[in-house]
Design brief:
Layout: H1 4-21, E1 30-35, E2 45-51, E3 57-59, E4 66-68, E5 75-78, H2 79-87, E6 92-99, E7 105-111, E8 114-119, E9 125-131, E10 134-136, E11 146-148, E12 157-161, H3 164-167, E13 174-178, E14 188-196, E15 216-225, E16 228-236, E17 244-245, H4 247-252, E18 269-275, E19 278-292, E20 299-309, E21 318-320, H5 322-325, H6 329-338, E22 348-354, E23 362-369, E24 376-377, H7 382-398
Parallel strand pairs: 1-20, 4-11, 5-10, 16-21, 17-20
Antiparallel strand pairs: 1-24, 2-3, 2-4, 2-8, 5-11, 6-7, 7-10, 8-9, 12-13, 12-22, 14-15, 14-23, 15-16, 15-19, 17-21, 18-19, 19-20, 22-23
Helix pairs in contact: 1-7
């Protein structure tokens, strides 16, 4: 039998616990995917072909590799691929100073108005008409022949399946462009995407034609470090090999640990970052967690994340890169190679950029989580409800007649 005094002590203990957890009431349920791999094991690739209104092709060969970059607004051809276009009669009509990472700019030639086919891993062609590409035969983007930006993703569901990376390294991510979101594999989450316009500003003459540009997709995310948490809308960027935070975000999170107003002496090191405008050295820093905020009100969480600190634009607080999207797959490839776990998998099975209704200014990043990682941890805020329920039960029992 529980005496009145004992009952009071229990209820009092519940009340103390309730007060202790109230500050956590803003937390949400979450899925702890695992630690970030801290670099992109792979990035999505597509092929393109440029031709005029008479279907006269300028190339480049449809097998050429272009980076499918959701953080890029334009269409860019460089190196030998640009040389091939020029050799086949490709014409340019203006020069545009494209803004890149770290405030750098680079002059690109702007093409005549052409049509462009693009295809994913399945080879199914899709067409953009009346586009103006940027090109420069004198620069390279590593083993990429250029960049295909968001223009190719508008009004389509762009699917990226990560499994091939673990089968034959370095097999690229499987990319397909669909007219409907693929069927769920059973562990699906939805993250809203806001499409924000950044009009081109690199014209040298007001009468020059502008390159084809598209809006950038922003998603809601929260970064946590120590006792600090900063929530904001960050770019969902498949072209970024590592996630990025602005200087303002870095200071707000307390990454200046010695408080001297300088992040360099708190950094883990530096890394060269290449963008449309050239290359810069960026500070590498560590944060405890990066969370994506889903429509299901369940956060998707990566821990121990390395980020770089770069100021892209005052209105851009950061970037969610391919390092997070592909995390876990490098380890899975290693385990398969060694035979320790032939079925090892990364954290995410597939991401789909659902921009089927792009004209609305909104889309969705559809994420299929690997089943073994989809373990939902209840929100700490659920605890007060449990405590109040228990206290109510005790009060009800106290009022019941003895049996």
């Amino acid at each position: 039998m529980v005496t009145s005094v004992a009952r009071a002590r229990v209820v009092g203990a519940f009340a103390c616990l309730l007060l202790a957890v109230v500050p956590l009431a803003a937390d949400r349920p979450y899925v702890l995917l695992g630690d970030s791999t801290n670099f992109a094991m792979g990035q999505p690739r597509v092929a393109i072909e440029v031709y005029d209104a008479n279907r006269s092709s300028f190339g480049p060969a449809i097998s050429n590799d272009f980076l499918l970059d959701s953080g890029a607004q334009g269409l860019v051809v460089v190196g030998t691929a640009a040389e091939e276009l020029i050799d086949e009669g490709y014409q340019t009509v203006a020069v545009f100073d494209e803004a890149g990472i770290g405030g750098l700019t680079h002059p690109y030639d702007v093409s005549e108005s052409y049509n462009m086919d693009f295809a994913g891993s399945d080879g199914n062609r899709h067409t953009l008409t009346g586009v103006r590409l940027m090109s420069d035969a004198n620069i390279t983007f590593g083993d990429f022949s250029g960049i295909v930006g968001v223009s190719a993703m508008l009004n389509l569901a762009t699917s990226m399946v990560f499994e091939p990376m673990a089968e034959t390294f370095p097999e690229p991510i499987h990319v397909s462009f669909e007219h409907a979101v693929p069927t769920t594999w059973g562990h699906r989450y939805h993250v809203p995407l806001e499409l924000r316009e950044y009009p081109p500003t690199g014209q040298r003459d007001a009468n020059d034609p502008l390159p084809t540009y598209a809006p950038l997709p922003f998603l809601p995310a929260e970064v946590r470090h120590g006792g600090a948490a900063e929530a904001n809308w960050l770019i969902a960027d498949t072209g970024a090999q590592i996630s990025i935070l602005s200087t303002t975000m870095a200071f707000a999170l307390g990454l200046d640990e010695n408080g001297d107003g300088n992040l360099a002496d708190d950094a883990l090191g530096t890394v060269p970052l290449t963008g449309a405008g050239g290359e810069i050295e960026a500070l590498i820093m560590q944060v405890d967690e990066i969370r994506l905020l889903t429509d299901e009100n369940i956060d998707l969480v990566w821990g121990n994340c390395q980020i770089v600190v770069v100021d892209i634009d005052p209105s851009i607080p950061g970037v969610i890169g391919a390092d997070l999207l592909t995390s876990g797959w490098l380890e899975a490839w290693g385990e398969r190679l060694l035979g320790t776990d032939p079925t090892a998998r990364g954290y995410l099975e597939r991401c789909v950029f659902d921009l089927l209704d792009a004209n609305s200014g909104w889309g969705t990043l559809v994420i299929d989580v690997e089943a073994g990682h989809d373990q939902v941890v209840p929100a700490p805020a659920a605890l007060p409800v449990m405590l109040l329920t228990a206290a109510w039960v005790l009060r009800r029992r106290r009022g019941r007649p003895a049996r």
